[in-house]
Each structure stands twice: as C-alpha cells, then as structure tokens.
Amino acid sequence: MIFGYARVSTDAQDLTAQLRDLKVAGCERLFKEKVTGATADRPQLKKLLREVDHGDVVIVAAVDRLSRDCTRRSNSRPRSGGIMRLRGGVKPGHFRG
Questions:
Q1: Is the per-residue pLDDT at 79 higher than 90?
Q2: Catalytic residues
Q3: CA distances from 43 to 24, 28, 31, 32 (A)
Q4: Is there a contact between 46 and 72 (Cβ–Cβ < 8 Å)?
Q5: What is the arithmetic mean of pLDDT over 55-70?
C-alpha cells in the first residue's frame, strides 16, 4: 500500500497543496495533522507508522514533514517499507525521492 503523510505546523496553515500532491503521487491512504515538528506528540504519524507493513511505501511532500532533525527522523521510519519525498511538481504515477 502507498501511504501519504501531510503536516503543517500551525492551524493557520493549509494542507491542501500537500494533500493534492500526495493524491497525484498515488497515495491510497492519507494521514494529516496540524502540529509543530518540534513536538514528538503526533498522533497521526504514530498511527501511520503502526499501520505500515512490509513492502508498503510512505510518501511525504518533504522530509521535514516527518521531523526537524535526523535523530527524530530515524525514529520515524516505518517498521518495513520505504519513505519517498516529493519535490516540486508531481505527475501522476511519477515519484521523486
């Protein structure tokens, strides 16, 4: 399965562009939240990581949507599967990672 994760830091920010790009990239299931990357308390990310299984892929608009630093990012890896990031425009069926 292809999962997508979208995050913005504040309630005033909009998830629309990230969600659109993730859908265009082929994500079958989307997880989204509005919470700062400085906190480890991200319920939707935790839920996503519990659901990822062998062979699944997690796509994010940018790697900083997972975490602000490498230490936290390494703890945000799916148990099995991979992480892809999107950059710039996305065409249907094309991944950039």
A1: no
A2: 9
A3: 24, 19, 10, 10
A4: no
A5: 76
**Domains of the chain in sequence order:** 2-85 (3.40.50.1390)
Whether the CB-CB separation of 32 and 15 falls below 8 Å is answered with: yes
**How far apart are alpha carbons 12 and 16 in whole angstroms?**
12
Rounded Cα distance between 57 and 82, Å, is: 5
Coil vs helix vs strand at 89: coil
Q: Which of 3, 21, 29 is CA-nearest to residue 96? A: 21
pLDDT in tens, 88-97: 444 444 444 4
Q: Which of 76, 65, 50, 53 is nearest to 18 (CA)?
A: 65
The C-alpha atoms of residue 80 and residue 55 are separated, in whole angstroms, by 7
Closest CA to 30 of 45, 42, 43: 45
